[in-house]
Amino acid sequence: MLSVLRDRTYLHLFAAQVIALVGTGLATVALGLLAYDIAGAAAGSVLGTALAIKMVAYVAIAPAIGAIADRLPRRALLVGSDLIRVGVALMLPFVDQVWQVYVLVFVLQAASAAFTPTFQAVIPDVLPAERDYTRALSLSRLAYDLESLFSPALAAALLSLITYNWLFAGTAVGFLASAALVVSAVLPKPVTAQPTEGTEHTGSTRGKAGAGARLFFTTPRLRALLALNLAVAAASAVVTVNTVVYVRDHLGRSAGDVPVALGAYGAGSMAVALLLPRALDRISDRTVMLSGALLLTAVFAGLGGVTAADTGNWRWSALLAAWAAFGAACSMVLTPTGRLIRRSAPATGRASAFAAQFSLSHACWLLTYPLAGWLGATAGLQWAVLALGTTALAGGLLALRLWPSRDPDRVPHPDRITHLHTALDAEHPHLAGAARAPEGWRHSHTYVIDSLHHTWPTAPHHAPGH
User: Rounded to the nearest 10 degrees, what angle do helices 220-244 and 285-308 cross at?
Assistant: First the structure.
C-alpha cells in the first residue's frame, strides 16, 4: 500500500491532507471549549447548531465550487482554501459572541467544501493506474481514522501545557503547512474538452453546478451510491451522536470509556482499509460495497439487543464489538467510493462529480444526525436504533436493486455537441448514399464524442459553411 508514496506529487498531497486533518481535529476540541466559555451550559446547543451550519455549507457550497473548478487553477483553489481556513483559525480565539462563532464556522466549512472535492478530483490524475489509486483511497481512509484517534490525544496533551486558545494556532499552522505542501507539488493539468471550429460547447455556471448531481441521478451505480451514503450516514450518526449516551447513561461507565468506544469504531474502519486494496484486486466494488451496507443492518440488529438489555457486564464488550463492526462496514462502503466515481464520470467532469458526492453524502448526514440526537433524547435509544436501522436497511436494499449485477467497468459519458451544416455539396460525407440534396440544403446533427478519448470530427467536416 505504501508504494504509492514513492510518487513525489502524491506524497506531498497526502502529507498535506494528514496535516490539515490534524489541524481540523485540534480546532474541533478547541471549538467545544470556546463554546463552553461563551455559552456555558448551553454549549451543546451551540455546537449542535455549528454542526448543522457545517453540513449546510458542505451541501450548498461544494456543487457551486465544482461548477467553476475547471476555470480556476487547481493549485490556486487549494491554497486559497487553506489560507481562508488559516484566517478563520486565527480569528476564532478573539470571538465573544455566539453569532460570531456561527459566521466563522460557516466560512471555515465553506473553504473546506472547496478544498476537499478539488483535492479528491486531483488524485485520479496524479495516480491514473487503478491499482495505485485504490491504495491511495485506502491510505486516505486510514488518515481519517487515525486523525479521529490522534487529534483528541494530541489536544489533551497540549492542554496540559497551554490554554485551548493556542489550539487554534496549531490549526492555523496545520493549514499553512498544507498550503506549502500543495505549492511544492507539481499538479497535473485537468483534462478539458475543447470544441472544434464551428461548434459550440458552453454551459452556464448554474447548469454545471447541477451536472454532478445529474450524473448521480442518471447513472445506475451512482444512484446506488446515494442509497449507500444514506446507510452509512445512519450508522455513523448513531456512533457520533449517541456514543456518549450509551457509555455514560445506558452502561453507567466513566467518561474515559467514551474515547475507547470511539476508538473501537476507528479500529474496525482501519482494519478494513488495510485489507481492501488486495481484496479489490479480486472482488468487485459492487460486492464489497453492498456487503458492507447489508452488514450495517445486521449490526443494528445486534445493537438493538444491547440497547434492550438493562443489566449485564457483557453489554460493554458487545458495544465495542458493534462499534468495531460499524467501522468495518462503513469502510467497506466508503473506501471504494472514489473508484466508483472515477469510473463513472468523464475526466472533464470529475470535479463536479466529486463535489456532488461530497454534497449529497453530507445531505444524508444532515438528515441522520438530528434524527439520532432528537429521537434518542425524546423517545429513547431503542427508537433511535429502530429508526436508523430501518434507514440503513432501506438504503442497502435500494442500492442492491439500483446497482445492476452486470455493471460495465466504465460508463460512457458522451458530450453531445449539436451544430449546423449549411449548403453542403451532394458529395459531402454527410450526404453520401442519400438522394441528391436540393440547393441550400441545411443539415443539422449531433456528434457524440467520447470524453475519455476525445474523438473529434475529422478534417473533411471543417469545410466552408460548417
Answer: 30
CB 57 within 8 A of CB 106: yes
Q: What residue type is 390 in one-letter code?
A: T
For the stretch 23-50, pLDDT in tens is 887 887 788 778 778 877 666 567 667 7
Distance of alpha carbon 13 from alpha carbon 276, whole angstroms: 22
Which residues, other chains included, contact 388 with Cβ-Cβ below 8 Å and sequence gap of 6+?
Answer: 234, 235, 237, 238, 300, 368, 371, 372
pLDDT in tens, 56-104: 888 888 777 766 666 778 888 899 999 999 999 999 989 888 889 889 9
Quick count: other Cβ atoms within 10 Å of Cβ 126? 21
**Cα–Cα distance for residue pair 436/427, rounded to 1 Å:** 9
* Contact criterion met (CB below 8 Å) for 309 and 315: yes
In Å, what is the CA distance from 301 to each residue of 60, 123, 258, 307? 34, 37, 22, 10
Q: Give first-to-last CA distance, the chain, whole Å.
A: 52
Locate 87 and state its grid cell.
484566517
Q: List the helix and strand counts (H, then E) for the chain.
A: 15, 2
Burial 157-192, CB ≥16 within 10 A → b, else e: ebeeeeebeebbebbbbbbbbbbbbbeebebeebee
DSSP annotation of 420 reads E
Distance CA 31, CA 36 (A): 9
> Tell me, what amino acid is at 321?
A
In this structure, are residues 304 and 385 in contact, taking their beta carbons and an 8 Å threshold? yes
DSSP H or E run through 83: helix 74-91
Strands 442-450 and 414-422, sheet pairing: antiparallel
Cell of 194: 475543447
C-alpha cell at 275: 485489507
More confident residue, 35 or 106: 106
The 10 Å CB-count burial string (b at 16+, else e) for 16-26 is bbbbbbbbbbb
**pTM, 2 dp:** 0.70
Which residues 6+ apart lie within 8 Å of 183 measured at CB? 75, 79
Q: Helix or strand or coil: residue 463? A: coil
Burial of 456 (0-12, 13-18, 19+ CB in 10 A): middle
Determine how many CB atoms are found less than 10 A away from the CB of residue 430: 14
For the four alpha carbons of 301, 304, 306 and 308, in that order, the dihedral sign comes to: negative
Reading phi first (left if > 0) and then psi (alpha if -120 to 50, else beta), residue 443 is in beta
